[in-house]
Write a structure and sequence with these properties.
By secondary structure, the chain is α/β, with parallel strands linked by helices. The protein has helices spanning 3-24, 64-73, 107-114, 130-142, 155-159, 212-222, 250-266, 290-302, 345-350, 359-366, 425-439; strands spanning 41-51, 76-81, 118-120, 147-149, 151-152, 162-166, 169-177, 198-199, 204-210, 229-231, 234-238, 243-248, 269-275, 306-310, 318-321, 324-327, 332-335, 382-391, 397-406, 421-422, 446-449, 452-455.
């Protein structure tokens, strides 16, 4: 039973929770006060990565009921499901997305309890336990009430939209990833050979401009002739200035735009999810790669009503393209990657550990006892929930609000870091400053008042 069917029960519970919190605080902030339920409006809520290992119902941080109320109050709510359901009964793949992700099957029920309706499974962890792990995950999702897209038994299934039926219309979800180990990419079906299970890919082409002397060496190494050399997965051309740029794979773009147009013909609103770690310039990692921007613009032009990004684990910018929102990265929404119960021998070896070490040793070694990696940067632990309000039927964007969320970075306990809740005023200020800075290249303007970030519409 989708959330649209159980809306009245959940929303009444959320409303009572919001009321009780408001009575306890005479100055309740504007953030997390949803506009859901207004006649003639459709509310879509999106979040970043959900790496979930603990029960959401156990979180008791301040304002948590208001946050769940916002998600439950939406007509459709989305998160990126960046883990697998395997119960650790399957062998790990030779290559992974980093941490080998796997969660208990009951986490899907927790996401439903929180109010989510739809999830992406297109990300760099979808192949952590190979094709069997992906199949196990999709089978668990099929038994849940969550609509999911972004992976399947072949490329056509991975590219296909999922649908959520609400009382205010039908919402389609198409999910794609540009970040993935090559072995996890879905393959096309033929009449004489089955397709390969995997994720919905967006590949890219990197073109490097190099001096003539470097180009000549590359020609000798590859035995190439002509004005372009392919080497190491990139293309090289001659130019006066050394530079690098990316563009989206044209075959992927053609098929992905066809999927979006198809979804638009079958639904009232189309949500496009992209998992995108990539950047154009290492000095500006919080700006998406050019091919990611190319894809997002084309997706809107093809009929997407909102493009929601994640993957880099930090907030990136917000853009309005032809009146529709692009959220280049919402970072992490649930970030419990240090609570995965087991890791394969490969990861222990990478951390310099032996078979005698246990999982807590692995996480301590990997983070240098919480003095490195994610532990030292607040931006991995701060995010926002995006609330997009559309006119019912008309698909016109009427409002776009960002609700600041803290993942409890300031708590030194590994057991409670990564759990979401409304951000404090101090962290809300930091989140707003990050979003405004990262959105500057897109010319996006914001209002910020009493903990709520509102995008100024064109």
């Amino acid at each position: 039973m989708r959330k649209s069917v159980r809306r009245s029960v959940l929303f009444s519970l959320a409303a009572s929770a919001v009321l009780s919190w408001g009575e306890a605080s005479a100055a309740a902030p504007q953030a997390f006060q949803s506009a859901a339920g207004k006649e003639g409006e459709v509310v879509i809520v999106t979040t970043g990565d959900a790496i979930i290992m603990r029960r959401l119902q156990a979180i008791s941080r301040p304002g948590i009921d208001r946050m769940w109320g916002l998600i439950r109050g939406a007509d459709a709510a989305f998160t990126n499901f960046e883990t697998q359901i395997t119960d650790f009964t399957l062998p790990a793949a030779q290559a992974s997305g980093g941490t080998y992700m796997s969660s208990p099957a009951w986490v899907l029920g927790e996401l439903e309890w929180a109010g989510f309706d739809m999830v992406s499974v297109a990300n760099n962890h979808a192949g952590d336990y190979g094709q069997d792990g992906l199949r196990s995950t999709l089978a668990a999702l099929a038994k849940s009430n969550l609509a999911y897209s972004g992976a399947g038994e072949n490329l056509a299934f991975a590219r296909a939209p999922a649908f959520v039926d609400t009382k205010k219309g039908r919402v389609a979800l198409i999910s794609v990833t540009s970040s993935f180990p090559p072995a996890s990419m879905a393959g096309a079906q033929r009449k004489d050979l089955r397709g390969r299970p995997g994720i919905n890919p967006l590949r890219n082409i990197r073109t490097n401009t190099v001096p003539q002397s470097t180009f000549d060496v590359l020609k000798q190494l590859t035995g190439s002739d002509g004005n372009k050399v392919s080497y190491g997965g990139a293309e090289f051309i001659v130019g006066d200035k050394t530079s690098s740029s990316t563009s989206a794979n044209p075959d992927d773009m053609r098929e992905l735009m066809a999927s979006i147009k198809d979804a638009k013909a079958q639904a009232d609103l189309v949500v496009v999810s992209i998992h995108h770690h990539d950047f154009e310039n290492p000095a500006h990692r919080l700006q998406p790669a050019a091919f990611g921007i190319e894809f997002a613009h084309a997706a809107i032009d093809a009929g997407a009503d909102i493009v929601t990004g994640h993957g880099y684990h930090m907030l990136r910018g917000v853009e309005l393209h032809n009146g529709k929102p692009i959220l280049y990265s919402l970072g992490d929404f649930i970030f419990e990657n240090d609570l995965v119960s087991f890791q394969p021998a490969d990861n222990y070896e990478k951390a310099g550990l032996t078979s005698d070490h246990l999982i807590s040793d692995f996480y301590s070694a990997r983070s240098n006892n919480d003095t490195g990696r994610y532990s030292v940067d607040r931006r991995y632990w701060q995010t926002a929930i995006a609330e997009a309000v559309f006119s019912q039927g008309g698909n016109k964007l009427k409002a776009l609000r960002l609700h600041p969320v803290s993942l409890n970075w300031y708590d030194s306990k590994r057991s409670t870091r990564g759990q979401p809740a409304p951000a404090s005023p101090k962290e809300s200020d930091e989140i707003f400053a990050d979003i405004r800075k990262n959105s500057a290249p897109f010319g996006t303007k914001f209002d910020y008042h009493n903990g709520l970030i509102t995008v100024v519409l064109e």
